[in-house]
Amino acid sequence: MEHKSGYVNIIGKPNVGKSTLMNAMVGEKLSIITSKAQTTRHRIHGILNTEEYQIIFSDTPGILEPNYKLQENMLKAVRSALVDADVLIYLTEMGEQPDPENGFIQKLAHTKVPVLLVINKIDLSNQERVMDSIEQWNQVLPLAEKIPISALVNFNVDLLFNRILHHIPESPPYYPKDALTDKSERFFAGEMIREKILLHYKQEIPYSVEIEIDTFKEDKKLIRIYAVIFVERESQKGILIGNEGKALKRVGREARLDMESFFQKKVFLELRVKVKKDWRNNELLIKKFGYR
Description:
Elements: E1 4-11, H1 18-26, E2 44-49, E3 53-59, H2 69-83, E4 87-93, H3 103-110, E5 115-120, H4 127-140, E6 145-148, H5 157-167, H6 185-200, E7 210-218, E8 222-231, H7 234-241, H8 246-263, E9 266-275, H9 283-288
């Protein structure tokens, strides 16, 4: 049997469960998950390896109308996912109405890449509504294969995986066979901190935050991490730190526990908060923070 390798790129609107789906496919929590929109900012690769195949799953930011330069850069990651895929998954959910005028939908309708239209969260619906949803999507994406799933309860995920494997081309592996992702340990440390901020803060605070790992030093028993949390205004800095620093300490404590589980090693984590005024509209700072 020939070896298979390929890129499976997952796109869709915010909050449809792209990160949950990729994590379920890879078997590791690589993309952070919260109920807030724009949780995923970067395009993240999760790599699944066996002797017979290597599948590179790509979780992308949600498709939305950009309001500032950071979101424009996030949309570039989605557009690139349409170009370099061997299989495209458009992940939707029950209740989303197909929009034939949407530019991304139009590109999917005309692409030569196999498209799997995956309807998530069917555990919150019934058979009749699921069939109605499939028929609506048939009108705008007639060539896409429709697969209803529930990523949360793992329903039909095996079927989806088998259809992905069917479309993956024969190829040698693109990455080393022990690779799990293309992202660095520094990247995941920063994402774990950002996830806690998304979970514990409201309004604009989570979206005004960027994490920079200033120091990541590892020895046999301990990882020492010094991280800077950037916000856009002094008032946000005060809210993030909280009364007597209690809010920031909670973020640090919970992020450290996640890091210890992920890295399988004790972690010392120190957090500082700094202000970078209006960084989300500053092209130089956006690139400095790793957005392309």
